[in-house]
């Protein structure tokens, strides 16, 4: 693949375009026994290099983040687009931010309100994002088979990694 120079604005636009309609992310942390992945809902905000998630403070993922803040968030859609985001997570206790991100539907999911002191936010500062766009299921399958056979494949989609500036 040829290396492309991306502006910060282009990086942000690309990640928005790839993930905006994907509601559930796979959120991976590092636990003492190894990596742990769980589904989580990304909060709908104007993406600026930061992702937000709601959770309760007394969960294993919060302890894992406090021990090791390196995380990965993965997205996949039905159109054969895949995004893997590497970043650093931190726990945020900010009622104003929770209220700004809160959706009334969360009251049923979390069985609480945004100002519950046990409800916290996870803020992920994105460091890099790798994405794959094949354009079709057939291309994805063909790429998989040719990779397994050690053969080269031509123009079967896009695979790029973008680094985010701090």
From TrEMBL:
Listed InterPro entries: Split_barrel_FMN-bd (IPR012349), Stress-Dev_Protein (IPR052917), YdaG_split_barrel_FMN-bd (IPR038725)
Residue ranges occupied by any General stress protein FMN-binding split barrel domain in the UniProt entry: 10-153
Pfam families: Pyrid_ox_like
PANTHER family for this protein: PROTEIN BLI-3
Protein's name in the database: General stress protein
